[in-house]
Amino acid sequence: MSATRKWFGGSRVAGGPAEFDVVVLGGGAAGLTASGVAASFGAKTLLVERARLGGDCTWTGCIPSKALLKAAKVAHAMRRAARYGLADHAPDVDTRRVMAHVRAVRQGVYEHADAPPIFEAMGVEVRAGRARFVDPHTVAVAAEGGDEMPFRARYVIVATGARPSVPPIEGLDRVPALTSESVFELEEVPRRLLIVGGGPVGCELAQAFCRLGARVTVAQRARHLLPGDDPELTEALRRALEGEGVECLLGAEVRRVANDAGAVRATIAAAGGTTEVVADAILLAVGRRPNVEGLGLEAAGVGYADRGIAVDDRCRTSARHVFACGDVTGRYQFTHMSEHMAKVAVTNAVLGLPSKVDARYVPRCTFTDPELAHVGASEADLVARGVRFDVYRFPYDKLDRAIADGETTGLVKVLATRPGGRILGASVLGAAAGELIGELAVAMRNGVTLRRLADTIHPYPTYGLGVRRAADQWYVRKRSKALVRVLRFVFGYRGLVRDFDPDEIV
């Protein structure tokens, strides 16, 4: 064999860096998906992760937060058992056991879905360490306490994720502050908790800790919780949270914090003036920053900014052989979109097929109780674009399954074209909203109109029936008084001819 051979337009000296078709940087949702798909297509694949595989979703996001929310929901249900003909019972909340349970759940998910042997069995080589570009096709990996080892890559997929942002609050560097990366390591729930930020993380953890016995205050800079969602539904959610004891300060900015005999004293400015909140802990939930530091992106010719690595709709960076996906791009902050982007990146890199990110029908859900989910355009979007549309609603207090379960807070709200009934956007507040929004996303992506949804048989009694009942309202509005009069005349019918109010639920 020759001592040198052509490789990626250059040459490799025998005994030089190991070669891979694909090197994936980052072992979170995007990186795991990318490496698994690449290996399944026959590409020799290396996956590099500096910590544990699983990333934010498994360790500090989706999984632990849902486990915590479930424990809190059980405690809440015990307190309200009389609603179901049982005796109310104040739960004996051992928060040490609750937090241990949360950590056990995420460990279980890691072991059956994310652990290195699972990916090694797929043909992926997994290495622990910090990675950086040395040149466009060479990545150096430094293991803990070890030397750097270089690897050559035909394609590189950057999926290093993001981390919680730290807002510029005076005095924050002098008080212990929690983020999603540290909150699940708590041994006990704080007695008083101040949460900075009223987005999905802030709202979910506010309700969970409140239900577990904490006195929770949320300071939200915007005028609404979850400002990207439907204002009508976010207002209903705010009322639900405040009804459980969460204090929501809207249009409020935390100006400074100070240590007060072991507690945190926060000065908060709002429309009504300035107030002070004393808490045992402060939790920062104000967004995320991409993990781009130390990657040596300049050496690979990869462009990036504060928001993240710039990619096109094929997840390609400014370097044609380097792709990026997931939170590190700053484009989306959802696990499901990280996985979708990873598939797009691998399809373009490994197969050379022109796959693009589908950003038109991205569903999202905040898993409070009630849940709040959305897909497609909002009313404000459509009004700004001058689109003519109708709004169709069906409230949970008319949905039989919700009535049976005692979960009557909620609303299915669908925006559709006039008069065809093509779905432009939808929001759902209520139990199982995340499941319902999936059906609406499928309908939107495949051009299923409200008429076809209404004509589709849904099982009874289910929450999903709420989608069909919302679609039924399209039929109600399309009913013609003139047609009814003709039918009365032709067949001799004797029923009433009446108008339905546009806001009337039938």
Labels describing this entry:
506 residues; 15 helices; alpha/beta; seven-stranded mixed β-sheet; five-stranded parallel β-sheet
Question: How would you sum up this structure, described in words?
Answer:
The structure is a single chain. The protein has 15 helices and 26 strands. With 506 residues, the chain is an alpha/beta fold. A hairpin with a 2-residue loop joins β1 (4-7) and β2. 32% of the residues lie in helices and 27% in strands. The strands form seven sheets. Strands 3, 4, 5, 6, 7, 8 and 21 form a seven-stranded mixed sheet that branches. α1 (29-40) runs parallel beside α9 (335-351), α3 (62-79) packs antiparallel against α4 (95-114) and α3 (62-79) packs parallel to α6.
